[in-house]
Amino acid sequence: MSLLPFLKRAPNADDTPNTALVSFLKDYSIEVMPRTAEKIADFRELLPAGTRVYIAHIEGTPIGDMVATASRLAADGYRVMPHFPARIIKDKATLADWIARYQGEADVNQALLLAGGVDAPHGVFESSMQLLDTGLFGDFERLHVAGHPEGNRDIDPDGSDQNVMDALRWKQRFADSTDAQMALATQFAFEAAPLIRWADALKDAGITIPIHIGIAGPAKLQTLIKFAIACGVGPSLKVLQKRAMDVTKLLLPYEPTEVLNSLAAHKAAHPDFNITHVHFFPLGGIKTNANWAIENGGASAIPAAQS
């Protein structure tokens, strides 16, 4: 089923397309898990062909389920980007096996490398830098690593950003020395101004890796607050808490319109802004998020055959 008839809405007096937002949403990506993907009968009814789909690898998910999901999505014409969480990978042999299975069964050539959300490593790896250092991703066309606009207490327990910035400088040097296209895929946040300040600060620090900004898709407010607390989202959590205090908004589903409009307007005014793409976390459901993107003009700008 083609989405093209739905991606362009006929304008009228009450529905003028936001051209800045439409441009900002081009080639957006979205995240799924095997267990949530199973509930979708046909992704082609929801996502434009060529959309980059991250596959989140949660601790305890069998690698077979991950590869099967990747194979299904690749067969449907999507650019598949599985997570490689360092702390749940036992050793280099396990990593090599995962890569071989993804490449052999789903022709995967993109990956998101991150430390992962477990406290104690299952084996020899504890950071994405160690995964990159193995050399096993040498023939991948695209490699993404994590970004933390609000810091990360697991990496910097003192609340500073010293260790995070040291890691980003290492990754910048790696990006400069590899043929793979790299990007920072960030944790989700709810307020544009801090994101803009963070992105500008990275550029000032010499970090030129493009940023794919994490955005929470439409969801119930209670759901977002639960995920925000669980994921360690800090300052921007106050945006949700303030909304929860407004009785007129409490029962309405949250939509990312305000934060994305602000980022899109900034991008339109500053074309060299280093936030280049939007990455959705469909916390309220894949269908809900995909439909919101369609209604707001979001479409994949790159054919499936490209990266």
Could you say what the CATH topology is called? Answer: TIM Barrel
Secondary structure class reads: alpha/beta
> Are there runs of 5+ residues with pLDDT below 50, and where?
1-14, 300-307
CATH architecture: Alpha-Beta Barrel
Query: Domains counted in the coordinates: how many?
Result: 1
Kindly, what is the distance between the CA atoms of the first and last residues, rounded to a whole number of angstroms?
A: 23 Å
Radius of gyration: 19 Å
Counted beta strands = 8
Keywords: Oxidoreductase
GO molecular function, one term: oxidoreductase activity
Protein name: Methylenetetrahydrofolate reductase
InterPro entries: FAD-linked_oxidoreductase-like (IPR029041)
Q: What does this 3D model show about the protein?
A:
By secondary structure, this protein is an alpha/beta fold. The chain has one domain (22-295): TIM Barrel. It is 40% helix and 16% strand. The protein contains 13 helices and 8 strands. The protein has helices spanning 4-7, 19-24, 34-37, 63-75, 92-106, 128-133, 162-177, 192-204, 221-230, 237-244, 247-250, 257-269, 286-295, and strands at residues 29-32, 52-55, 79-85, 110-114, 142-147, 181-189, 211-216, 275-281. An 8-stranded parallel β-barrel has the order 1-2-3-4-5-6-7-8. It is globular and about 50 Å long. The model is unreliable at 1-14 and 300-307 (pLDDT under 50). Keywords: Oxidoreductase. This is Methylenetetrahydrofolate reductase. GO terms for molecular function: oxidoreductase activity.
